[in-house]
DNA sequence: ATGAAAGCGCTAACAT
DNA sequence: ATGTTAGCGCTTTCAT
């Protein structure tokens, strides 16, 4: 591995000149730069970013801490973040907590040694967020909280859960649905609480009541969703529509409906939330509310970079990015007789 | 940020003693270690891994270059690799090529500056592999080729595509299927070529011919699969079974079959390959051949670590890890009349 | 415009 | 067992 000294020697200049010629921030004689560049090429020189980082305090590395890359919601987000980071010359360290809060904590502590310039944090549990962010602050590492919005002294970038859920439910109501089953997931999470609020708002605005009996509060996985769906469909007055609080959960709803010998959307309508990659390829394609991961990634990286460069207003921003309703064939107007 | 000097001063010892007390490789008086540890705690000291890396030549960072994290095959693999790396005290830099060979190349070149200790490489195109691996070798970076097996002077870790495809097709044949549609994906890729070979072997061993007319060679996406399926089902002698060369493609097959008003598995059987997370939750759950990503990840990381530590036999290993058939309700014995 | 030299934080000889 | 010192490769004053 050639070092800057080798380049300097071959080019017949000092190491500082090589450094300057390469950094292009300082004026260097054209002829000198030529010589340096030629030596660089000849020696196949690649600057050592560790040495650079040690010297100037920037590693040009970001870390992203996520609950589980196997949750189909995250791959796109990670991809977009990596792309945005890369565009700015940054590498991305991926810290997958594997759903384990203890590992999440360890990851954060290890990041203090890794000297990353900043961290994009998506926690497993809301209740641990404050501690994790505090840990990063103690380490002097700028952080952005993604997909959650708390008053923790850091920038937050999330989506519009309330509005989205409200739009979904309002749309179903407008199609004549009255018995709408809401599969809520984890009620202790801000995300799902906000989505629930959106649902309730839609019900209230449209004067629908009795929705409580179709509200399942703790649907944590696809199998839960399957069972809940089967159970709901066995009722005398079965729901005519299902709103799964995340698209993944809709898988279980689909199985449950098909398992009961019913069809989508003729017998039952189904909607999800997030618009993960597979949703458009389900049979039938799933109506959902797009979680704007591209813009969330872009915004989060942009905010983080500002913090790293110590500009950005003092007060942390809490940014909410709008998604949009995506109507696909999984929902239809309720049949009169079924009303 | 406290440095080792601060710790040394507070503990009343030299920096080397601090270093030794922390590295636990060298004997240090218990009392001394105590003092050091206390100072570390008091100052909330976290060693600077850049400085360490610059000094001893190991960054304790691996990189993984993958075609696209949004391809549902990769998240589990990435997760497993990250976990194995983490267990060894290594961080993982994720380089997502976004399906773009030019970006893949740039990533690899940038890794030469990042001074990662090793790279797990999964290329977009087989034909670029040799060049990418050569680039890493020039940079003196140990590499392992994952999911592909070429004679490139590096360890390769893959699965058993031939055997898997053969088992799938043999199983379908044993269930009475004769007209089996094989959706081949990209024929220029080793992966799919091997799977194709497995199919042909199964057909040959069982004396089935005429399979060529049900072989679609270039099904690159879910939409392709949908169209191919619709087309095949419109034939007079339509296939009784579909073998999608990757599970993702089975999404398109399912839509195509349902779009034709047929049912799975009563009218048509469907099998995939890989066993991605969603396969078990499709309606009906998909029969497939498990791609052993956990063991591939484990093996690949283990081989890479050996290379990093400069042990491991001189000749590069080409390891093939066996998967296994996973039978789910998407296939059934062909009905007599349909035979 | 270029060179000399210091130093980022750490570890590993080398000395004691 | 512990301290002293050099140096990893780079950038950045400070001179010239």
Report how far the terminal alpha carbons of chain A are from each other. 75 Å
Could you tell me the radius of gyration of chain A in angstroms?
Answer: 26 Å
> Which pair has the most extensive contact?
A-B, 54 and 54 residues
In the sheet with the most strands of chain A, the strands line up as 2-1-3-4-5-11
| Helix vs. strand class of chain A | alpha/beta
Instruction: Please tell me the total number of domains of chain A.
Output: 3
> What string gives the helices and strands of chain A in order?
HHHHEHEHEHEEHEHEHEHEEHEE
* Quaternary organization: homodimer
CATH domain class of the largest domain in chain A = Alpha Beta
CATH topology of the largest domain in chain A: Rossmann fold
Q: What is the CATH architecture assignment of the largest domain in chain A?
A: 3-Layer(aba) Sandwich
By CATH, the superfamily of the largest domain in chain A comes out as Response regulator
Backbone shape of chain A: elongated
* Helix count from the secondary structure assignment of chain A: 12
Commentary on this structure:
2 copies of one chain form a homodimer. Chain A has 339 residues and is an alpha/beta fold. Chain A has 3 domains: 4-45, lambda repressor-like DNA-binding domains (434 Repressor (Amino-terminal Domain), Orthogonal Bundle); 61-159 and 293-323, Rossmann fold, CATH 3.40.50; 161-291, Response regulator (Rossmann fold, 3-Layer(aba) Sandwich), CATH 3.40.50.2300. In chain A, 45% of the residues lie in helices and 14% in strands. The first copy, chain A, has 12 helices and 12 strands. The first copy, chain A, binds a DNA duplex (16 and 16 nucleotides) through helix 2 and helix 4.
């Amino acid at each position: 591995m050639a070092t800057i000294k080798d380049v300097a020697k071959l080019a017949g200049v000092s190491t500082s000149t090589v450094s300057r010629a390469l950094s292009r921030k300082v004026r260097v004689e054209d002829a000198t730069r030529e010589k340096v560049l030629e030596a660089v090429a000849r020696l196949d020189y690649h600057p050592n970013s560790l040495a650079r980082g040690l010297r100037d305090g920037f590693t040009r590395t970001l870390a992203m801490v996520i609950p589980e890359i196997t949750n189909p919601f995250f791959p796109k987000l990670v991809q977009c973040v990596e792309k945005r980071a890369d565009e700015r010359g940054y590498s991305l360290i991926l810290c997958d907590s594997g759903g384990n809060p203890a590992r999440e904590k360890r990851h954060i502590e290890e990041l203090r040694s890794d000297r990353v310039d900043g961290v994009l944090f998506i926690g497993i549990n809301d209740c641990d967020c404050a501690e994790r962010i505090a840990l990063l602050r103690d380490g002097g590492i700028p952080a952005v909280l993604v997909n959650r919005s708390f008053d923790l002294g850091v920038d937050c970038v999330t989506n519009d859960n309330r509005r989205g859920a409200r739009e979904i439910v309002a749309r179903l109501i407008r199609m004549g649905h009255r018995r709408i089953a809401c599969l809520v997931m984890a009620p202790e999470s801000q995300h799902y609480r906000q989505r629930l609020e959106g649902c309730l708002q839609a019900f209230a605005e449209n004067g629908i009541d009795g929705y409580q009996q179709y509200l399942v509060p703790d649907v944590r996985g696809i199998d839960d969703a399957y069972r809940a769906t089967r159970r709901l469909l066995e009722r005398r007055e079965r729901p005519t529509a299902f709103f799964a609080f995340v698209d993944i959960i809709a898988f279980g709803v689909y199985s449950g409906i098909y398992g009961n010998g019913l069809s989508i959307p003729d017998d039952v309508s189904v909607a999800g939330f997030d618009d993960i990659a597979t949703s458009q390829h389900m049979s039938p394609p799933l109506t959902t509310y797009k979680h704007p991961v591209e813009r969330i990634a872009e915004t989060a990286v942009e905010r983080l970079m500002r913090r790293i460069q110590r500009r950005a207003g003092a007060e942390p921003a809490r940014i909410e990015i709008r998604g949009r309703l995506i109507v696909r064939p999984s929902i239809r107007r309720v049949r009169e007789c079924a009303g």
